[in-house]
Design a protein that fits this description.
By secondary structure, the protein is an alpha/beta fold. Helix content is 41%, strand content 12%. It has eleven helices and six strands. It has helices spanning 9-21, 43-49, 67-77, 93-103, 105-113, 132-140, 181-189, 200-214, 216-223, 230-241, 252-264, and strands at residues 27-33, 54-59, 81-84, 120-125, 158-162, 165-169. Helix 8 (200-214) packs across helix 9, helix 8 packs across helix 10 and helix 8 (200-214) crosses helix 11 (252-264). Mean pLDDT is 90; it is low at 147-155.
């Protein structure tokens, strides 16, 4: 697959906005995708936060497997707060609000000792399409922000005022450059990059190759795939799903889009593509 780079102008503007507002916040809610907790971590953002306490939310936990729990453990061992959840499930609300309370517990006690109840401000950030706005709606207990299953729904900052806290919703931002192309490809798999910048055929073949290495049983169960080259696996998918053009040729484009859509919506099964070694040196 060709080299992936994507840092549009609105992201540079968003980074500047976040730098200007981070000092106003008491803590950071950093939303990661539980399927790719290393790929969805932007070291540039972490550097921006300085000493601010960070809560890492591994969202879309229902689409991930037990490998995501290893990342939660890794982050906690590093001294930060971390929770795995599904922000579309209201039952997860207690998990995140409890973690937020722990994040600012010391500051809260200091304010109470001085005789007043402080309103805490949290910046909510992450790469595109990790579900930042959905997480905010979960904390709020109601739909307060626009959500969508694609990169770039949130384009400007937005303060959401709740009882006892305020949340700053920020646009999704990727690193200015991708040093690790394996992680960049995973961002493309989950829809954190604009689909227009990566050829769908390259993306689908790369995903098939990675899934066959890590989850062959899922490909077999979903599409009847039993091995072969990525192209042969795509052809098996097309055959299984009836994606055949007039004349008997495979409808590769339809098969590619079906594969990507199935993966993003969890139809192939719960998966976590990143391993803890992918996080080495990231510095959660």
């Amino acid at each position: 697959m060709k080299l992936i780079q994507w840092f549009p102008g609105h992201m540079a503007k968003a980074m500047r906005m976040m730098e200007e507002n981070v000092a106003l916040c008491d803590g950071i809610i950093y939303v990661l995708d539980a399927r790719c907790p290393a790929a969805t971590f932007n070291p540039k953002l972490k550097k921006m936060f300085g000493a601010k306490p960070v809560l890492y939310v591994l969202n879309k936990g229902d689409l991930a497997d037990d490998r995501a729990d290893a990342f939660v453990k890794l982050i906690r061992e590093g001294g930060a707060e971390a929770v795995r959840l599904n922000a579309t499930d209201s039952r997860s609300r207690r998990n995140i609000t409890g973690a937020m309370s722990r994040l600012v517990a010391e500051k809260r006690q200091k304010s109470l000792d001085k005789g007043y109840a402080k309103t805490f401000r949290f910046m909510v950030c992450g790469v595109p399409n990790t579900g930042k706005s959905t997480v905010i709606n979960l904390v709020a207990g109601a739909a307060r922000t626009q959500t969508g299953n694609k990169a770039g729904v949130t384009r400007g900052k937005q303060w959401i005022r709740l009882e006892g806290c305020e949340l700053l919703d920020t646009p999704g931002t990727t690193p200015p450059s991708f040093e690790n192309q394996r992680l960049a490809a995973r961002l493309a798999y989950i829809g954190s990059l604009n689909d227009d910048i990566v050829p769908m055929d390259d993306l689908a073949l790369a995903l098939l190759e990675e899934l066959w290495q890590k989850y062959p049983q899922n490909l077999s169960a979903r599409y009847g795939i039993e091995g072969g080259t990525p192209l042969e696996m795509l052809e098996k998918l097309c055959s299984r799903r009836g994606f055949i053009l007039k004349g008997g040729d495979f409808d590769y484009e339809r098969g590619e889009r079906a594969l990507i859509d199935d993966f993003r919506k969890g139809r192939i099964g719960a998966m976590t593509l990143d391993d803890p070694f992918d996080a080495e040196g990231l510095g959660y």
